[in-house]
Amino acid sequence: MTDFLLILISTVLVNNFVLVQFLGLCPFMGVSNKLETAMGMSLATTFVLTLSSVCSYLVYTYLLKPFDLTYLQTISFILVIAVVVQFTEMVVHKTSPLLYKLLGIFLPLITTNCAVLGVALLNIKKQNDFIQSIGYGFGAAVGFSLALVLFSAIRERVAVADVPVPFKGAAIGMVTAGLMSLAFMGFTGLVRF
Amino acid sequence: MALIRLSSPHVYKANSTANVMRLVLIATLPGILAMTFFFGWGTLIQIALAGSLALAFEAAILKLRKRPVGFFLSDGSALVTAILLAVALPPFSSWWVTATGIFFAIVIAKHLYGGLGNNPFNPAMIAYALLLVSFPVEMTRWTSPMTQNGGGWQIASFADTLQAIFGSVEASWYDSFTGATPLDALRHRGALTTEELWRSSDVLLNGVGAWYAVSAAWFMGGIFLLSRKIFTWHTPLSMLIALFLTASAFYGFDPDNYISPMVHLGVGATMLGAFFIATDPVTSATSNRGKIVFGALLGILIYIIRTWGSYPDAVAFGVLLMNLCAPFIDQYTQPRTYGHSSANRGMKGKN
C-alpha cells in the first residue's frame, strides 16, 4: 500500500509527466485554452492511460516475453494504445453520447499523446509488476490532468491580459509552462525513486 | 464595455496603487531594520542594488512596450518586488545573482504578461526560485546572525560587505561570516534526534533568536498592513494555522524526528511569506473563501516541502505552486451573487 502511494506521489508531483519529464506536451499546449475542454480531456486521458498501461504490461509479460519478441515492444504498444482508444471511444459513444459529444476530436487524439506510450515503455524499463503498472499509469494520468487543468485555468486568465504582441498566444503559453515547471521543481526530493 | 453602477456613498477616495505600495514599503521597514541589525550591511546594499536595477529594467521594458514610463514607474510596484527579492536573497550574494533575479522578475515574470495586475506568478518568488535552482551554492550561503558569533556585535564591515557583493573575497572570509540557516541545520541532522541536534548546533543554540526577532519584525509590518486594510486576514491567518496544525500533528506524533510547530512559524520566511508574499492581490485567490483555501493549502505545502523536499525553504515554491492553483480556486469559490439562489461557479453545465 505504501509502495502504491509512493508511486502515486512520485508520478503525480515529483516526476510529473508533463512538467518534469516533458511528455505529452502536444495536448498540454493544444487543449488548454479552455478549462472545460481541459477537464474533458483529462478524464478521457486518465481512463485511457490507466487501461493502456495495464494492457501493455499484460501484452509484454504474457505475449512478447514468452515468444522472445521483446524487440517488437514499441510497435505492439502503439497497437495496444490504438485499440484501447478505439475501445474507449466505442464504449463512451454507446453509454454516454453526451460525453462523447463533449470530448469530440480529443478522444481519438489521445492515441498520439506521447505520455501514453511513454508510460507503457517506462513500465517495462522500471520493471514494474502488475499492481505497480496500474499505479504508474493512473498516477501519470492524474499528474497530466492536474497540470492540464491548472494550466488551462491560468491560460484563460492570460488570454485577457495585456500581453506584448510578440508574446501573444502560444509564446506566452510556453513561458507559463516553463514557470509552472519551475514551481514543480519544489517537489524535488519528496520521493526518491 | 462594463457598465459601472455605483451605489452610495458617492464621495470617497479610492486607494491608489501608489498609495498601497507606499504603505507596503513602510511596512517592510521593521523587517529590513531587524535584518540589517542581525545580518549586517548586506541586506541594505542588496535592497539599494535591487531597487535601482528594478527601476531601470522597468523603465526600459515600459519604453519597449511603448507604455507611459513615468506613470507606471511611480506606482512603486517594481520597488516592492525588488525589496521582497532582496530580503529573500542571502545578504552576501554577488551582484550578478541579484541582477539576474531582478531581470527575471521584472521582465519575464511581470512584463511579458502585461505588467502589474496581469502576472499569474509572484515576480519576486519566480526570481527566487529561479536563482535557487540555478545558483544553489550562492543561494544557500546565508550570513550567520551576529548573536551566533559570541562576541555580540561581530558583523561584517561595510567595506567588506561591498567587496563580497561587487568584487570577490576569499572562501575563508565566507566561512567566518556565513553558515547554515536554522532550517538548513534541521534538515541535515543525520542520526541525531531534533533535541540532540538543538543542543549541538551553534546556529540553533545561539542564532535562532535572531531569526525569531526578524520574523517578529515582519509580523509587526504585516499587522500594520492588516490594520490599514491593505489585505484581509484570511490568507495569512489560514496559512499560519494550517502550518501550525500540520506541524503540531507530526510533532505530537514523533517529536524526535519532526520540528516543533513554533520553530516552523518563527524561522525561515514564514512570516514574510504569510504577510507580504501570499497576500499579493494579483497572484492569490480573490474571494474570501478562496483566500482561506489558498492560505491553508499554502501552509500545508510549506510544511511538506520543508520536511521532505530537497530545498532549504519552501515558501517560494509553495507560493508559486499556489499561484498555479489560484485561477482554479477562484473558479470554484465564486461567491453567490445577490438575486441568485446559488453561486455560479465551476463547470457551466451542458448548455
Automatic annotation (TrEMBL), chain A:
The keyword GTP-binding does not apply. Part of a membrane-bound complex that couples electron transfer with translocation of ions across the membrane. The keyword Cell inner membrane applies. PANTHER family: INTEGRAL MEMBRANE PROTEIN OF SOXR-REDUCING COMPLEX, ION-TRANSLOCATING OXIDOREDUCTASE COMPLEX SUBUNIT A. It is a multi-pass membrane protein. The gene is rnfA. It comes from Marinobacterium lacunae. Belongs to the NqrDE/RnfAE family. The complex is composed of six subunits: RnfA, RnfB, RnfC, RnfD, RnfE and RnfG. It comes from the Bacteria. Its EC number is 7.-.-.-. It is found in: Cell inner membrane; Endomembrane system. InterPro entries: Ion_transpt_RnfA/RsxA (IPR011293), NqrDE/RnfAE (IPR003667), NqrDE/RnfAE_oxidrdctase (IPR050133). HAMAP family: RsxA_RnfA. Coiled coil: none annotated. It is an enzyme of class 7 (translocase). GO terms for biological process: electron transport chain. The chain crosses the membrane at residues 38-59, 71-92, 98-122, 134-154, 169-191. Keywords: Cell inner membrane, Cell membrane, Electron transport, Membrane, Translocase, Transmembrane, Transmembrane helix, Transport. This is Ion-translocating oxidoreductase complex subunit A. GO terms for cellular component: endomembrane system; plasma membrane. Signal peptide: none annotated.
Automatic annotation (TrEMBL), chain B:
GO terms for cellular component: plasma membrane. It is an enzyme of class 7 (translocase). InterPro entries: NqrB/RnfD, RnfD_bac. Keywords: Cell inner membrane, Cell membrane, Electron transport, Flavoprotein, FMN, Membrane, Phosphoprotein, Translocase, Transmembrane, Transmembrane helix, Transport. The modification FMN phosphoryl threonine is found at T181. Its cofactor is FMN. It is found in: Cell inner membrane. One of its GO terms (biological process) is electron transport chain. It holds the Pfam family NQR2_RnfD_RnfE. The chain crosses the membrane at residues 20-38, 44-62, 69-89, 95-113, 120-137, 203-226, 233-253, 259-278, 290-308. Its EC number is 7.-.-.-. Its main location: membrane. It comes from the Bacteria. Part of a membrane-bound complex that couples electron transfer with translocation of ions across the membrane. The complex is composed of six subunits: RnfA, RnfB, RnfC, RnfD, RnfE and RnfG. HAMAP family: RsxD_RnfD (MF_00462). NCBIfam families: PRK00816.1, rnfD. Belongs to the NqrB/RnfD family. This is Ion-translocating oxidoreductase complex subunit D.
